Fold:
Amino acid sequence: MLSLKTVPEYAGDLDSAEAWSVLRRDTSARLVDVRTAAEWAYVGTPHLASLGRELLRVEWQNFPAGTANPDFVTQTSEALARSGAGKDAPVLFICRSGARSRAAAIAMTKAGYTRCYNVSGGFEGDLDGEGHRGKTGGWKTQHLPWKQN
Structure:
């Protein structure tokens, strides 16, 4: 008799501090920023120089139309391969608030990567009571390394 096993959509969620901890202690771990080029340029990006690694950047949605990037899996697979990451390396995905990065983690898990994580809260975090980002949750509010591009 066959035993059916439920396969999770992706490895799970990490908050920004947990993501930084994984990146610090596991040299095979990679961080992929799936926001748009405009967001990278105007909002800033995580900065991994102190870890001796580069941030990988692959748009989940094309700017300015906001349409899905049909080549996301291929482009991400190529970027991961160039960085030396195998399909069993921890791959952490980050966006503005955690929605696009969750979708990216699911897509890459379906593509055969076994340890894809979503950085919940993303780079800027959730909206605060006044409707602004960057004050509650997220990479920047945790005072993790980042730079303005």
